[in-house]
């Protein structure tokens, strides 16, 4: 198995030249997926070490963490994460067993179930946020070269505009010197 610590120069280049069959949008999407996969691979270990949950359970926690005060219906969580409801039910049960989420019936809907973070989960996420964010930044810096950044800017033109207006600001996708 490849060492995830390898430097990108040690790895074969991602085929991203413009001479292929794919239009720019699909090529950019594929490059984005490759970068996302690399970040997820690095993040899995840090998530397990810092929060003692799976990556999929971590995604549920992150989604719930972005909710103001209440929670979300389980059907909405499944929809937003693109997960089957049966798989989500298992993940929520694991998170509930760990004391990280609560489940309650939705008022007026016998079948509806709302899930929310516990104070324990909020505390854990607060403590783990800095190392997790650093992991994401480092992984993107390692795996997103100039071609990937250019493709991403082609897919999301607002990023290209921001990079032109924030010339002095540090770039989150820049490789450390």
UniProtKB/TrEMBL annotation:
It comes from the Bacteria. Residues 25-161 form the HTH marR-type domain. Signal peptide: none annotated. InterPro entries: HTH_MarR-typ, MarR/SlyA-like, WH-like_DNA-bd_sf, WH_DNA-bd_sf. PANTHER family: HTH-TYPE TRANSCRIPTIONAL REPRESSOR YETL, TRANSCRIPTIONAL REGULATOR, MARR FAMILY. This is HTH marR-type domain-containing protein.
